[in-house]
Structure formats: structure tokens, C-alpha cells
Specification:
The protein is mainly alpha-helical and about 475 residues long. The chain folds into three domains: about 5-130, HUPs (Rossmann fold, 3-Layer(aba) Sandwich), CATH 3.40.50.620; about 135-165 and about 205-295, Serine Threonine Protein Phosphatase 5, Tetratricopeptide repeat (Alpha Horseshoe), CATH 1.25.40.80; about 305-480, DNA Cyclobutane Dipyrimidine Photolyase, subunit A, domain 3 (Orthogonal Bundle), CATH 1.10.579.10. It contains 21 helices and five strands. It has a five-stranded parallel sheet, with helices on both faces. The longest helix has 23 residues, at about 270-295. The termini are far apart.
Amino acid sequence: MTDASPHIVLFRDDLRLADNPALTHAAHTGAPVLALFLLEPESETRRPPGAAARWWLHGSLVSLRGDLEARGVPLALMRGSAHATLIDLVRRVGACAVSWNRRAGAPSREEDEILASALKDEGVETHHFPANMLFEPEAVRTGSGGAYRVFTPFWRAARQITPDAPLPVPQAIKGWKGAFESERLEDWGLLPTKPDWAGGIAQVWTPGESDARLRLDAFVQRTVADYGERRDFPADAATSLLSPSLRFGEISAREIWHRVRAAIAAGDAPEADAEKFLSEVGWREFCHHLLGGHRDLATRNFNPAFDRFPWARDEKALAAWQKGRTGYPIVDAGMRELWTTGWMHNRVRMIAASFLTKHLLIDWQEGERWFWDTLVDADPANNPAGWQWVTGCGADAAPYFRIFNPVLQGEKFDPEGAYVRHWVPELERLDKRWLHKPWEAPARALSEAGVRLGETYPRPVVDHGSARKRALSAYETMRSDAP
DNA sequence: TTTTGAGTTGTTCGA
DNA sequence: GTCGAACAACTCAAA
């Protein structure tokens, strides 16, 4: 025996040291800590991360390992089901206890209960803590004890509760010195190889807790002041860029919440802007709240009337959308930003999603799967809930007749065209008057800008006016076919 | 139980 | 060019 028996801290969607109750608890017990990250296989309840999210996970694990090792705490990497792998490790190292932070969502909670009871049978203590959401799901309930289905009353009720204050990084953590087996991160194949398409993502993003905190600092100190007004303009760096870090728990929602509230209280951030931002964090809560009651949120229409919706099957149009070749510049810019950087501005996500489901009449699940694979922040709750919201089949969804006009949206939110010019460089020299509708540009304007429609940049795959009418009549079909 | 007010992010049309 | 209404009714949440 080289050391006392270790306390294992299981890391999952909480790849951070600050505000990590499981780690803090283990540190306070005084037992030596062995950190463990488990890469779990796909299961009925666990959706494997998409390609872009795997890239992020790799970087975040490198960062977490560095942060832990700097404090003398080793990180074991293992693959397999939590149950078998963890019990195996517990036996090998003679662990005395296992701690973890709960994950959001009903399936995870039940799995945790099963895990805890299996570990108890091994004679190992377990401790689990709320950590990844502002509120536990049962804390926000309607007057009759049900789950909210409308955001505004949900958030109004949630606002009555103050989230727990975030914990600091534990001052001293005793690292375990014993031997253990660990897989090599490189062997997990989380990074793309042939081809390595992640170059553009790496240019924009640095995964890990310390960079997440830098982004939060910058946002609270500068960006939040104009958030209410500027957040809708994709060419402005006016959003927090925290979504992938929240997805992987590199920073906690509670830390974000308290930092923003402190900035309001200190007069450093305008309350309206800051509260607008917090309500976006509230939407994350709401989406997880929905997923808790609807595990199949990604595969089933929240509103069952949409089971009758006459979706079109159009592989060519789907491919044009995915590649950013629809002929609508704001949509194409967004889809290319996504493909290149693993992220898309929220306003443009709505426009692109509306275009797929309404203009192309393609099932939202196709789009949801594409986003799942390409977004570094793809989240099991936010992604499907957002798609269902745009489509009109979700909880508290946009009304069906709200069909974004990609030209008007482009002109309104990218008036100078900086966003489109950046991501659709073949239109770079086109006058802003035509930038969002190049098919209406006079031949001379096009030729002076070096644009040849149908050659250098596609003609629109559908006409807005007729696509809009088609979508409205599809909705009409759905409603009149009611049983 | 019944009633009432309200509901993230828009667009189009016609005065 | 600007403005307000219509879009279509429905469900939720709370009193």
C-alpha cells in the first residue's frame, strides 16, 4: 500500500475545477483524489457527441488534465459503461469513495441511482451533487406541481430562487500517488484525421476552463453593456461565446449568473442588457427542464399535430443547405460559419433553421442532426428544443406563420454586409444594396463585383414568395387533417 | 371550476 | 415611407 485508499472524482459534463462540488467534497475529506473521465458508449439514453463536439471534448480534457496535474491530482481516462468500468477501477485501486456531480436530465438521474447502489454493494461511499444547472428540475414547478411548458412563467418562477453561490477551486487537493491504468487520450480518436477539418475551429476556439473564464471576463467587462441591442448582429462580437463551455461544464451556470448579477449590483453592467443575457441562460434551464420530461425531444414532435406534417424529401436541397449553397447569402454565410468554426451566431441559427423547415419543407430532425454533428456547443437539450421552437412544433414555439424572410433578416441584422462578405467571399465586392438579394442585382452591378450567378454563386434554390406560400399551405394541410 | 391574460427573436398588406 | 392590423386560434398558468 503506497497510500491511503483514494477518493475517485468522476468528471462528466463538468470539466472544471471551480464550482465543482464533487471535487470540493473529495478534497475536504482529506483522502487522496483520483480523477476519472469516462467515455461512455452510445446507449438508448446517451447520445454520442457529434464530430465537432468530440474535437472540443479532446481539448477540454487536455486542459482539465493539465489543471489537475498542476495540483498533483492524476486523471484516469477510461472507456466503457459507467457501471462496469467504475466498479472495475474501484476494485483495482481499492477506492474508499466515489463522488460526482449530477447531470441534467431524467435518464442520467436514474442511471446515477443505479450506479450509486452498485457502488454501495461494493462497500464504497458515493456522494453526488447538483452542479450543472442553476436549479434542480423539481425546484421550478407550476402551482399545481407540474412542469412548465411556457418560458416566461417558468423564468418568472425561477427568478424567485437565488442559485447557490459558486464554490472556489479547492485550496489544497491531495493527489493520489498510487498506480492506475489509464487509456491514452490520443487513442480515443476524438480529433479528426483524414481529413483534418478542424483547422478553422482551432483558429477560433480554445477549449478548457481557463479560456472559458477569459470569455466570461471579457463579456462581463465589455460586451454585456450593449448586449440587448447588439446581440442580434452577427458581424459584431456581441455575444458571450460561452455556449460550448456551458455544454461541457468548463464553467458553471451558477458562476456566470453570480458574475453577471454582481456586475449589475456594482453598476458595471446595465441591468436590462445583463438581464436579457441571463434570460438566455434561463432558456438553457428551460430546455433542460423540457428534456427532463421528454427524453425523446430530439426525435419526437413536442406537438403531436406535427406528426402529420407533410415534409418533403429533397436530398439536393438538403445538401445545398448543409454546404451553404442555397443562394440566400445570410443562410449560406451562417452554414459556412458553422462548417468552418463549429459555431453559428444565434440569430443566423434561427434564419438558417427556419429556411430548412419552411422554405425547403425539410423535417427539422434533419437539421437538428446536422447541427448535432457540426456544432461544438451541440447540447442534448438546447439543440432539439431550439429546432422544435423554430419549426413551430415545440414548447412555447414560434407561431407557424412566422416565416423568416432571409432577405429582410439579412438587411436588418447585417446591414453593411460585413458578415456575409466574410463568409461568402464570392459576393465580397457586391454593393450592400444587392448583397442580400444578388438575383435582383442589375447585370452591371454583378459583373463589376465579379459575380456570375449560377457559376460563382448559386441562384436561389427556391423563390421566397412561393416557398412561403407552400409552407403556409403545408401547415394548413396539417391542421385540416386533424383527426 | 371557470375565467382571464398572455405568449423570445416576424412578415405582409393595405391605408 | 410609415403605421397598425392580420396572420389563427390555442394552450398554458394563475387567480
